[in-house]
């Protein structure tokens, strides 16, 4: 998972189209993080991406290392870092999913370890779909 600037979206006069597209991006990112099988995740993500006019740019955004210094982790790396998303490592909970404490190797060649917080987005999270707080469902972090 990573943070990024989303610059590939064209400005359109129809705000509803734009809002709908943004939601699909969020859904796809959430699904990618929540799935436990990389191949299943990738194939379903690819088919879902066909809905996008700019599906190539979208897929590149998810898979390529950009020119910034953000480090891209594979799902298996994050799974390993959190010992399989162990419930004993849950350190918090947000509307979109659980946050786990994890440990990853540094990339500076020093062989040192780095503590990280890993958020596993929950595809069943409803925070973004319901505007009313009373209708939000909490996630189950165990
Ligand atoms: N980097 C971090 N270090 C330590 N604890 C963290 C870190 N990030 C998140 N947490 C813990 O996880 C909790 C939930 O964080 P999260 O970012 O999911 O909150 P949120 O912004 O409310 O979530 P959401 O965007 O899903 O509504 C935090 O309140 C905190 O206890």
Furnish the topology, listing elements before pairings.
Elements: H1 15-34, H2 38-49, H3 55-63, H4 75-81, E1 90-94, E2 97-105, E3 113-121
Antiparallel strand pairs: 1-2, 2-3
This protein binds adenosine-5'-triphosphate.
Adenosine-5'-triphosphate binds at residues 91-96, 99, 117, 119, 127.
Q: What report would you give on this structure?
A:
- InterPro entries: Kinase-like_dom_sf, Protein_kinase_ATP_BS.
- GO terms for molecular function: ATP binding; protein serine/threonine kinase activity.
- Keywords: ATP-binding, Kinase, Nucleotide-binding, Serine/threonine-protein kinase, Transferase.
- The chain has about 140 residues and is an alpha+beta fold.
- It has two domains: about 1-70, no CATH class; about 75-125, Phosphorylase Kinase, domain 1 (2-Layer Sandwich).
- The chain contains four helices and three strands, in the order ααααβββ.
- The protein has helices at about 15-35, 40-50, 55-65, 75-80; strands at about 90-95, 95-105, 115-120.
- A three-stranded antiparallel beta sheet has the order 1-2-3, covered by helices on one side.
- A hairpin with a 2-residue loop joins β1 and β2 (about 95-105).
- The protein is flat and about 35 Å long.
- It starts with 14 loop residues before the first helix and ends in a 21-residue tail after the last strand.
- The relative contact order is 0.15.
- Adenosine-5'-triphosphate binds next to β1 and β3.
